[in-house]
Amino acid sequence: MTPEIPEKSPIRLDVDFYRDPHAVYRAIKQRGNKPTEVVLETGMAYLPPNLRAWVVTSYEDVEFVLRDPRFRKSIDKAMPLFAASAQGGGQAQDRSSLLYDNMANNDPPIHTDLRKPLNSSFTARAVAPKRQAMRELAESVLDAVAGHESFDLVQDFAFPYSIGVICDTLGVPREDRETFHQWVQTITSDAEPEVLRSDAQRMVGYLRGLVAQRRETGTDDILTQLAVSLGESQAVAQAYALLAAGYETSANLIVTGLLVLESEPDLKARVWADRSLVPTAVEEMLRHQSPFNLSLYRYATEAVEVGGVLIPAGSIVFLAFAAANRDDARFEDPDRFTVDTPRREHLAFGGGIHNCIGKHLARLEAEVAFDVLVRRCPELSVRTPPQHMEWKASPTFRGLRSLVVAPGPLRSGPGTAGAGEAA
């Protein structure tokens, strides 16, 4: 259902927006798909609740903002703008945590310095050899629920698998994953400020310990690269950015990807019957489901006209990647999900200098996950009714807190393909 939106009032983005952002995007499209004023009711990390901002939805306009230097990122310069843009006297969250001072929240030259030590580790060639280890990890995660009547795709597979992949990639001990997972979930949600500060401080302390350890006894991993290339605070902030974004979006893609396949039974049957369709299906999931709903912030350094609308200087701007990826001016029949033709020109990984550094890792991770799910769960179906699905209260990360599926995976052994099978 498309909501009624007053012509001159900002759109309030609330829990209904997290559940179905495309209802709002359809309404914006009906008004000409122009940049639109909004109020984000929910705070998150450094964002205050009731933040007044602009949302850019068309593919052409999103690409324009991604590449226009008048739209900037600097967490320290943005903080007073957040406070000034919060309605009802809302206060910007405490930015004392250094976690937020990472490459995602800064432009060059800071961004360049922070990203440089990582570039070679995330190329397509660099991540390709990880396929076998990913497959073995996915198999072992499913082994834990093999033979069960049902299991939670979010908590029993998507999160453990995605966390394991990023732990192995960065060099973070897997045995710590439950601890930092809870901290990340707090920091990226609408937690109370004191809870947010407490868990952010715990995360900083944990990562500082790992960085110090790598400086003393380095190993061949990304955490060591950060520890020896950057100052302590920079290394901690970068490690957090990679850790949080590196598993949250991948886990959400696995879950929403299955949901969209479940809504298209004929396509799901084709993918389950022919695993060679998995890469194309994953590419379409990235476009159609967009695990990054809204981008992280930008602010206008001067008044800028975007799509015929003047965005005032000092305005906070968010890019609606999910809306741009379903823009009918760019994609034919954009709401239709297909596994026939890959539509790789999507913006699921952003663009410009802030394009997702982990895009090749994310693609491979999702391909392996679905390849293993198809083989180990031949009769898999969603059992949680739509009205009982709880979506995370985040304007950026769109994901479910739980999704019961059934039946459980087949047990490994005779009759199932080995873990070393090529994908």
Automatic annotation (TrEMBL):
InterPro entries: Cyt_P450, Cyt_P450_B, Cyt_P450_CS, Cyt_P450_sf. The keyword Metal-binding applies. Gene3D superfamilies: Cytochrome P450. Transmembrane segments: none annotated. Pfam families: p450. Keywords: Heme, Iron, Metal-binding, Monooxygenase, Oxidoreductase. The keyword Metal-binding applies. Belongs to the cytochrome P450 family. This is Cytochrome P450. The lineage of its organism: Bacteria, Bacillati, Actinomycetota, Actinomycetes, Kitasatosporales.
